[in-house]
């Protein structure tokens, strides 16, 4: 079957190519790090589909293996080199039997280390950064000729314009929830963070491109769209009314698209939470009541050293306004412990901030010194043991808050969007409005549909519930039939 409405940049889809009997090849993409990398891995698969590459979940079956890497913390970057060590053996085995295996390193480690990767790991055929994904077919062809290709330029005018579009079949195979990148890069330069160096300056996609992609997702059956950006609420663009739009206005526009029943966005910066965005949380039912709004530290002194450019009080006031607009809002965040110079008192301020805000979920990390960032050159680096103790105390508090939030949902009814089979036979797993996975006994026919679920039990990470009979919900894509 050919889907003409969603063809790749080369004008053909993988389905066309296979129908023409061209010899199929397999690509295996291993994704590390954030949701943006998940989105990008799909874009790489889409770019290679017209070249006859099918996505495989088994590395042993692949002709091309791509590691889509993360550079945010030292551990994440080191994982790549251990994986390349394993791949060296796989490649050697292949070569013994006269077959070729091509290995590519993409993502933020590729961008940050470039040539160094090819030098440290000669097994690699291809190193390419996030600005080159639309050129993947050409880069693979060059590497296929035997030379090691390193492509880490930032010279793309509009890479999104050139990215291959997935076929409707490919979108469907990825499920009823989808990511949609609206913005990439960051101009904030927090002193601990490599993102401004690996992903470059902030770039926003146009309203037209975003609406078109959202429509294509909805037409292929996607019900929930999560807008992505390293600094997603810094997104801005010219609206059809000629005014400069921010993320709030964009969300109002996307909410009009037939078929999209839920919207989310991640990840945000407190300084970019403007009035229109808060109004979107107040007025749009389909904008889910879950907000990931990293603060990193509760100490004004540390926030200043991190170049976050806001105080703890500004963050508290912001959260008050957001909760006024949407009283059922669940807050999530990111925290770093052990930033250079962080004293016991500074850390106590972080614990106090967490107590005052009350998080439904959060991510917390030990500070990891990243080469080239201002933080790496700061005096007063914190001892690893102290970092570990602080992280344990913070995570203990955050887990207690997460459990308390989940427990508050016991006995409550909520809409769940079912995504896939659950842990046990006869079960499905879906997502609550607050993003927790919900395990429910339900027939497979409900995958891709919403239903009302009553929560019976909770754990730290999941909710458990049962279908509420007679609570079918008419959604834009059709009705949900719950068996009696
Ligand atoms: N060390 C530890 N954590 C970091 N993060 C970003 N850079 C570092 C670093 N150098 C965390 C921040 C950010 C999240 C994506 O990763 O909390 O919000
Ligand atoms: Fe990194 Fe700060 Fe930009 Fe977030 S806002 S990507 S932490 S520099």
From TrEMBL:
Cofactor(s) needed: [4Fe-4S] cluster
A Pfam family: TRAM
The keyword Iron belongs to this UniProt entry's keyword annotation: yes
Record's keyword annotation contains Transferase: yes
Domain MTTase N-terminal, first and last residues per copy: 25-145
Predominant cellular place of this UniProt entry's protein: cytoplasm
GO-annotated molecular function: 4 iron, 4 sulfur cluster binding; metal ion binding; tRNA-2-methylthio-N(6)-dimethylallyladenosine(37) synthase activity
Cofactor note: Binds 2 [4Fe-4S] clusters. One cluster is coordinated with 3 cysteines and an exchangeable S-adenosyl-L-methionine.
Keyword terms, alphabetized: 4Fe-4S, Cytoplasm, Iron, Iron-sulfur, Metal-binding, S-adenosyl-L-methionine, Transferase, tRNA processing
EC nos: 2.8.4.3
Catalytic activity: 2-thio-N(6)-dimethylallyladenosine(37) in tRNA + S-adenosyl-L-methionine = 2-methylsulfanyl-N(6)-dimethylallyladenosine(37) in tRNA + S-adenosyl-L-homocysteine + H(+); N(6)-dimethylallyladenosine(37) in tRNA + (sulfur carrier)-SH + AH2 + 2 S-adenosyl-L-methionine = 2-methylsulfanyl-N(6)-dimethylallyladenosine(37) in tRNA + (sulfur carrier)-H + 5'-deoxyadenosine + L-methionine + A + S-adenosyl-L-homocysteine + 2 H(+); N(6)-dimethylallyladenosine(37) in tRNA + (sulfur carrier)-SH + AH2 + S-adenosyl-L-methionine = 2-thio-N(6)-dimethylallyladenosine(37) in tRNA + (sulfur carrier)-H + 5'-deoxyadenosine + L-methionine + A + H(+)
Cited InterPro entries: Elp3/MiaA/NifB-like_rSAM (IPR006638), Methylthiotransferase (IPR005839), Methylthiotransferase_CS (IPR020612), Methylthiotransferase_N (IPR013848), Methylthiotransferase_N_sf (IPR038135), MiaB_methiolase (IPR006463), rSAM (IPR007197), rSAM_horseshoe (IPR023404)
Compartment(s): Cytoplasm
A GO-annotated cellular component: cytosol
Domain of life assignment: Bacteria
Residue positions binding [4Fe-4S] cluster 2: 186, 190, 193
Domain Radical SAM core: from-to ranges: 172-404
Residues annotated for [4Fe-4S] cluster 1 binding in this entry: 34, 70, 108
Function, in words: Catalyzes the methylthiolation of N6-(dimethylallyl)adenosine (i(6)A), leading to the formation of 2-methylthio-N6-(dimethylallyl)adenosine (ms(2)i(6)A) at position 37 in tRNAs that read codons beginning with uridine.
Subunit organization: Monomer.
PANTHER family reported in the protein's UniProt record: CDK5 REGULATORY SUBUNIT-ASSOCIATED PROTEIN 1 (PTHR43020), MITOCHONDRIAL TRNA METHYLTHIOTRANSFERASE CDK5RAP1 (PTHR43020:SF2)
Family: Belongs to the methylthiotransferase family. MiaB subfamily.
Protein name per its UniProtKB record: tRNA-2-methylthio-N(6)-dimethylallyladenosine synthase
Species this chain originates from: Stappia albiluteola
Gene giving rise to this polypeptide: miaB
């Amino acid at each position: 079957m050919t889907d003409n409405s969603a063809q790749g940049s080369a004008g053909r889809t993988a389905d066309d190519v296979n129908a023409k009997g061209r010899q199929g090849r397999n690509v295996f993409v291993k994704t590390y790090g954030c949701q943006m990398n998940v989105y990008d891995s799909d874009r790489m698969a889409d770019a290679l589909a017209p070249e006859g590459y099918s996505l495989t979940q088994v590395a042993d079956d692949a002709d091309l293996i791509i590691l889509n890497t993360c550079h945010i913390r030292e551990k994440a970057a080191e994982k790549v080199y251990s994986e390349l060590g394993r791949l060296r053996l796989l490649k050697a085995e292949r070569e013994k039997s006269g077959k070729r295996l091509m290995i590519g390193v993409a993502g933020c480690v590729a961008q940050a280390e470039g040539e160094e990767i090819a030098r440290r790991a000669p097994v690699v055929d291809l190193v390419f950064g996030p600005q080159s994904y639309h050129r993947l077919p050409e880069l693979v062809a060059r590497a296929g000729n035997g030379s090691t290709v390193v492509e880490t330029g930032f010279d793309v005018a509009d890479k999104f314009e050139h990215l291959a579009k997935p076929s409707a079949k490919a979108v469907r195979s990825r499920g009823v929830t989808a990511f949609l990148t609206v913005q990439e890069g960051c101009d904030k330069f927090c002193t601990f963070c490599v993102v401004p160096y690996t992903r470059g300056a902030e770039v926003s996609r146009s309203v037209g491109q975003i609406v078109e992609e959202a429509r294509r997702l909805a037409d292929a059956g996607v019900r929930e769209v999560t807008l992505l950006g390293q600094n997603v609420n810094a997104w801005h663009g010219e609206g059809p009314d000629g005014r400069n739009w921010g993320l709030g206005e964009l969300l109002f526009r996307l909410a009009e698209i037939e078929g999209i029943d839920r919207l989310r966005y991640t990840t945000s910066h407190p300084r970019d939470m403007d009035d229109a965005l808060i109004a979107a949380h107040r007025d749009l039912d389909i904008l889910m009541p879950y907000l990931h709004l990293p603060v990193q530290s509760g100490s004004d002194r540390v926030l200043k050293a991190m170049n976050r450019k806001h105080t703890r009080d500004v963050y508290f006031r912001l959260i008050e306004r957001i909760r006024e607009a949407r009283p059922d809002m669940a807050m999530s965040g990111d925290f770093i412990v052990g930033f250079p110079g962080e004293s016991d008192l500074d850390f106590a301020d972080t614990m106090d901030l967490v107590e005052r805000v009350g998080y439904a979920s959060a991510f917390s990390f030990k500070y990891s010194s990243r080469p080239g960032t201002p933080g790496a050159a700061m005096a007063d680096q914190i001892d690893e043991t102290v970092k570990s103790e602080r992280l344990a105390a913070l995570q203990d508090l955050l887990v207690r808050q997460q459990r308390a939030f989940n427990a508050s949902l016991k006995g409550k009814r909520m809409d769940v969007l079912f995504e896939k089979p659950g842990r046990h036979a006869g079960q499905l797993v879906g997502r609550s409005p607050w993003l927790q996975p919900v395990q429910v006994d339900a027939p497979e026919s409900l995958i891709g549909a919403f239903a009302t679920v009553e929560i019976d039990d909770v754990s730290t990470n999941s909710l458990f519930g049962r279908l509420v009979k007679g609570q079918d919900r008419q959604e834009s894509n059709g009705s949900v039939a719950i068996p009696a």
